[in-house]
Amino acid sequence: MELITILLIVAAVVVVWAIWAYNRFVSLTQRAMEAWADIDVQLKRRYDLIPNLIESVKGYVAHEQGTLQSVTEARAKATQVHVDPSNITPEQIQAMAAAEGALTNSLGKLLAIAESYPDLKANQNFIELQRELTDTENKIQASRRFYNGNVRDLGIALQSFPSNIIGNMFNFKEREYFELGENEQAAKEPVKVQF
Asked: How many CB atoms sit inside 10 A of residue 110's CB?
């Protein structure tokens, strides 16, 4: 009788642990999807600010149409990349990272050009737009770190024993980190402006 009781207790512990592990994977997956949604919100805010920034710069830098055009094109390309948060693929992440890196580079060039125009730098509308864009860039970075942290936690849980058994049994998948890669490195370098 004692052996049956011990086996029932062990079986109950295993079942409770399996339920806990499954629910943890559900939670980690949902947190990763929520974190991606945070990135998406900040990117959309960035996309909305860019046309206003360009319009405010246009009147001052009429001979810099190439730079204005490259920002507009980079924004258009970035807004066309769609990532489905419920089914994120490495290809989607790479496409988003490439588009965002190109947009970051072209925005850096635009802001560097603006530095050469004292009247523009003193324009209150431009100053406010630049502040909002900087704030949005910081929020994008924070959202990206939050997303990557959740992806890391999910990956650790999927690779750790014994939770990997439950993860594999219920087909939970790891997600790609959102890294800007080579474009991020280029964005860290000073922008070269030539007239």
From this structure: 24
Residue 122 CB partners (closer than 8 Å, separation 6+): none
Find out if CATH 1.10.10.10 is the number for domain 2-188.
Answer: no
Which positions ≥6 away from 1 have C-beta within 8 Å?
none
Instruction: Supply the pTM of this predicted model.
Output: 0.74
* Tens-place pLDDT, residues 39-65: 999 999 999 988 888 887 877 766 677
Model confidence at 113: pLDDT above 70: yes
C-alpha dist (Å) from residue 131 to 14, 88, 98 = 54, 32, 24
Nearest-Å Rg of the Cα atoms of the chain is 24
Report d(CA 21, CA 4) in Å as an integer: 25
Domain ranges of the chain: 2-188
C-alpha–C-alpha distance, residues 148 and 89, integer Å: 14
Tell me if 99 sits within 8 A of 81, measured CB to CB: yes
